[in-house]
Amino acid sequence: MYEETRRFVLAIAEDLSKLAALAFKIGIMIGGACLLFYCYRINYFPTGISAGDAIILVFLASGFAIVYGMFISCLLSLGLWTTPILRPLIRLAARLRRRATKVTKLNQPIPELVSPNILHLVLGLLGVIIVYGFNAKQPGSWITMLGAAFSLAILASAYCDFSTKLQAARAKDKSPIITLSNTMPTVWRDTGKLRFGCVMSLVMICVVPLFMGGVSGLLLDSSMRFVGLRKNASVVLLEAPYSALLPKQYVLKSGSKAKGYTAFSGVIVAFQGIGTNTILEYATPDAAAYLSVPNQSVIVYPANKSIQPARYPRR
User: Fold this and answer.
1) Which residue would you say has higher pLDDT here, 308 or 203?
2) Hey, how many other C-beta atoms are within 10 angstroms of the C-beta on 68?
3) Omega before 241 within 30 of 0, i.e. cis
4) What average pLDDT does the segment 293-298 reach?
5) Helices 216-227, 118-137: crossing angle, 10 deg rounding
C-alpha cells in the first residue's frame, strides 16, 4: 500500500514538473514574441545588451506572458458565460448550413460549448472590469473585446472537442488486439488531424486577443508598465543637444536644479532599463513620437500627481 502511494505521488510530481517546464517555455516564447512586437511598435530594438541584460529579458518575457495569460483567461471566462447566447446562434448557423447544402443531417455533429464553473465566474468578473477599464481609455473597444471573448469561448470548445476525440483515438491505438487491416493508416491520419486541430486551437487562443481585441497597444503598454520597462508621465532631465529636440510645451516651468540639464514634465518613458538607450514618448498633432537618448544623458524620476502631461488632440 505504501509503495503504491509513493509511486502515485511521484507520478503526479513528475507530471506537474513537466507541465511547469512546458508552461515556462511557452510563456517565454509568447512573452518574447510580444516583447519583439512592442519594440517594433515603438520602432526601437535594444542595442548594447550585456549578458546580464539577456537574463533580465528572460524574466521580463515571463512576466509579460503572465500578464497576457491573465488577460486571455479573463476574456475566455467572460466568453464562456455568454454560451447561453452562443448556443442558439450556433444551432441557427447549423440549420442555415443544412439548407444551403441541402443535407437533412450533417455528417459531423455540432461541438458542444464548454460550460462555465465557479472559477470562470471569478475570472469573468475580472474580465468585465478589464473591458470597462480598456473602454474608458479607448471608447468603443468593448465591442471588439466582447467579440474576442465570444471567439475564445468557441475556440476553447473546439480545443476540448479535438482533445476528447484525440484521447479516444489514442486509446484505440493502445488496444492489445493487433490488426493489419487497411483502416490503420486512416486511424493514424485522423490522429494527426486531431493533434493539428488541438495545436491550431491553442495558437488561435493565444493570438486572437492580441489582434482581434482592438486594444493591442493598450495591452502592450500595460504589460510593459507591469514589468517596469515603461513608465507613465514622468519628469525627465535631458542634456544638450537632446533637450532641444522635445517640444517647448513639455518644459517644466519650475526649471531644473541639476546643472546642465533641462527639465521636462509629462513625458512618457517608453523603454528603459535594457541596452544603452532610453526611449521617450511624447504627443504630436498627428501621432505619438519617440526620441532615443543615451542613458548617460537622461535622468528620470516619477512626476508629481499635480503635474499633467501636455496633450495634443489625437486624429
Assistant:
1) 203
2) 22
3) yes
4) 88
5) 100
Phi/psi of residue 96, each to 5°? -65, -35
Cell numbers that stand for 24 in this block? 515556462
β-sheet bridge partners, residue 233: 268
Predicted structure pTM score: 0.68
CB burial of 118-130 (b: ≥16 within 10 Å; e: otherwise) equals: eebeebbebbeeb
- What is the C-alpha separation between 69 and 26, in angstroms, rounded? 11
Please state, in angstroms and rounded to a whole number, the distance separating the CA atoms of residues 141 and 133. Answer: 10
Q: With 70 as the cut, is the pLDDT of residue 79 above it?
A: yes
Q: Say how far apart CA 54 and CA 38 lie, in whole Å.
A: 17
CA distance 9 to 143: 47
Grid coordinates belonging to 80: 464562456
Give, for 264, the enclosing helix (H) or strand (E): strand 261-271
Residue 44: partners with Cβ closer than 8 Å, 6 or more residues away? 270, 271, 277, 279, 290, 292
d(CA 270, CA 225): 9
